[in-house]
Design a protein that fits this description.
- Keywords: Membrane, Transmembrane, Transmembrane helix.
- The protein has 11 helices and 12 strands.
- It has 2 domains: 216 residues, Bordetella uptake gene, domain 1 (D-Maltodextrin-Binding Protein, domain 2, 3-Layer(aba) Sandwich), CATH 3.40.190; 116 residues, Periplasmic binding protein-like II (D-Maltodextrin-Binding Protein, domain 2), CATH 3.40.190.10.
- By secondary structure, the chain is of the alpha/beta class.
- It is globular, with a radius of gyration of 20 Å.
- Helices cover 43% and strands 20% of the residues.
């Protein structure tokens, strides 16, 4: 896949221990380009690690809890962390709960720090599709095998959009032009997850992702501007990021990336139009490794109680999240399947 910008943005995510990690030359070059940012983020992580350690002493899970957002304030992971904090506070589920931001390297800085808090159950890390993807893309030492996944709680759908004055009236129109000359139909998106969606759509349409021009934008707002100023012809982006532009008539929605129609979203799915893509931007909670079974059960109960509160339900509606709760053995199966799926997409991209 041709990249016409060096920007990379993560929107606000298990590998078996014997599964090989990517070691291709192109991936190593990508890691080299971000190493400066990783080093800077590591300095932030050192300070944040101290905050986690001091805030989460003791083993009474209902006494204190630190929720780690592996990104800066304002993104999807931070929003989920703060809404969870608010729901727990408002309902007295935890006496003292704080959010710590630990940005860097697609969330893997925070993941690495959580992985060394062995046996300390008073910590939860927000993650998701983007975090899982980053461990594959960067070949990180720390993976989801080094922590304790607790639950997937919500998912967010991508939508395929074009400018309102685009000649592409339908998804079939867009795909036909793209298939005829893949490099001549530039795509954009707000982060690495969106690029995975474009890759998945290319494969479903019989297009080689390597031949596609993809303009990586730093966030959903920048991606929308690339569409509106003509830099890109089409985009994949989070439905919450694009809904205002769709409703205002500035963007035309051609397909929702969901397995089935979603109540309240009047956009046909890509699958219903013959393109079998359904990768979602799910959000999950993970705890350190080395926990007792009773602690894992109590953390799972805490998360389930949190997502059942009126405050969390209101946040789900406000941010256009779809409730998707997965725990226990089902979660292990889900994460293994998502790992294999995302790893394949990166291979198809030539990374």
């Amino acid at each position: 896949m041709t990249l016409s910008s060096t920007h990379s943005g993560d929107r606000p995510d298990r590998a078996g221990p014997d599964r090989a990690r990517p070691g291709r030359t192109s991936t190593r070059r990508l890691v080299g380009r971000v190493v400066g940012g990783v080093a800077a983020a590591a300095l932030i992580a050192v300070a944040s690690y101290g905050s986690i350690s001091s805030a989460s002493t003791g083993t009474d899970l209902r006494s204190s809890m630190t929720i780690v957002a592996p990104a800066a304030a304002g993104g999807g992971w931070d929003t989920a962390a703060r809404e969870m904090q608010q729901a727990q506070k408002a309902n007295g589920l935890v006496n003292n709960v704080q959010v710590v931001n630990m940005p860097g390297a697609g969330g893997t800085i925070a993941l690495g720090n959580l992985s060394i808090l062995d046996g300390e159950p008073n910590n939860l890390l927000v993650g998701g599709t983007g975090l899982l993807a980053a461990t594959i893309q960067y070949g990180t030492d720390a993976t989801l095998d080094d922590v304790t996944p607790i639950a997937v709680v919500v998912e967010e759908y991508d939508v395929i959009v074009v400018p309102a004055d685009s000649p592409y009236e339908t998804l079939d129109d867009l795909v036909a032009a793209w298939r005829a000359d893949p490099a001549a139909v530039p795509w954009t998106g707000g982060g690495s997850f969106d690029q995975l969606v474009v890759t998945d759509l290319a494969l479903a349409a019989g297009i080689d992702p390597v031949d596609t021009t993809y303009i990586s934008s730093d966030g959903g707002g920048e991606a929308i501007q690339a569409l509106l100023n003509g830099t890109a012809a089409a985009a994949a982006g989070g439905y919450p990021d694009n809904i205002d532009q769709i409703e205002s008539g500035r963007l035309r929605a051609l397909g929702l990336v969901a397995e089935r129609p979603v109540e309240g979203i009047d956009i046909p799915t890509a699958a219903s139009q013959g393109y079998d893509i359904s990768l979602t931007n799910w959000r999950m909670l993970a705890a350190p490794s080395g926990l007792e079974d009773e602690e894992v059960t109590e953390l799972t109960d805490l998360v389930l109680e949190t997502v059942g509160t009126p405050e969390w339900q209101e946040a789900t509606e406000r941010y256009h999240w779809a409730e998707q709760v997965i725990t226990g053995d089902d979660l292990d199966v889900f994460l293994d399947e998502e790992h294999a799926r995302i790893e394949t997409l990166y291979e198809e991209m030539g990374l």
